[in-house]
Known about the structure:
alpha+beta, five-stranded antiparallel sheet, 31% helix
Amino acid sequence: MVARRSILFAAFLAVTSAIAPGAWAQPAPGSDLSIEDQMQAFIDEAGFSGREQRGEIAVLSGIATVQALSNQPQWVAQRSLAYEQALLNAQAEYVGRQSVRITSETVSELFKAAGQEPPPYQPTDSDPSRLAELVRKLMALGTGKLDAALTDLKIDPSAYERASPPQRYIQMRTALTVKNTTRAFGELVGLVPVQTFEKSIGDGAYRIGVVAVVSPRMKDFAKRVLTDHGEFPPDLKSAGDVRALWTDKSKLVHDFGVRWVYDRAGMPVIVSFAQWATDYAGQDPITAQRYRDVAVKQAEALADAQIANFLKGSINSVSVTEIGQKITAAADRAPDGYVAQQAEIRELMDGRQDTIRRQAQVALTGLSTAARWSEKHPDTGQPIVGVVRTWSAAAEQATRSLRDGRPPITATGSPPPGSGPGRTGRKLMDATDF
């Protein structure tokens, strides 16, 4: 059984050897495709559609709008949050496919008054209780003293008197209400974003799109990370220089989420890319560095959360919608007995509340920050602070050996020729990677 698992995992490493951080997809010059069209074109061209139709993988997509304009200081942070929202929408779509409970209630109402003539006007201060009487007297006393004070100042108290409001009489009301509640719960294990899209929609506004994929191979690997203590068989054919992934800062600007790569010994590595922004705009370099340090910690927290969600995440989502219509015919009776017929009121109900709660809890050994970086966005010039967090099988083995006082386990074999720095390029994921 162990030998069979090793063979299967070696095959898995072979087909995932091309996994690297997906570039932030940009439309071709002159392209006027919407972000939805760009995402669908990528899904089709990468071969994901065919594999999903065969039931081999699940392809998810999500879109969110950056809640700040590109010339505003908070744009970078809002851009990161838009990515989180887009990915969360994609994850919620996946969970909705796993298990969903739907509750629907439809109510129709009809009311017609016995008579069309409104009843006599009823004063609102007709409560006979002693407390209500005392309150009315106190109010009268206060009103009298205020009126006397206004008169002394040669101000007419009657100018501030408020007429009693008219009383509404409902003559007919019809209503139709449809209330739907949808609840979904499921796991996110093995779900990774394979491509992220950024598109300007004019006047400094941007939209973010994410295409994510989950497969049995990905799920199996994620579970093994938590159970096998870093003891993975090396795959020298997939070996590469992991550090080359964060050498080019201009590419890091467009990298979000987790990816799988392999180190020089062919051992698996999980790489998590995240970024944030510093909101300090002053000139003091010491204060600026303090703000930058905080931004780095925020990015590290986001990167760690991405790894945790990949390994053992779950989502609980609840959507409540209430739609319908209400038509009301009414008349108002004034205190002097005058009756005013009101125009018929037509109301359309279109309410919705979505709550998505994502959570994960994992215990990891061998997690570290591989790189911290700063760069400006190529289009907006906004400064970005980012991190690259990694977990690797080799790091977990080394950490456990050091902690337990055992000699480290060294992977057998050597990297293939030509796998040094700068010789492996950044590759995109396609359907064969799953």
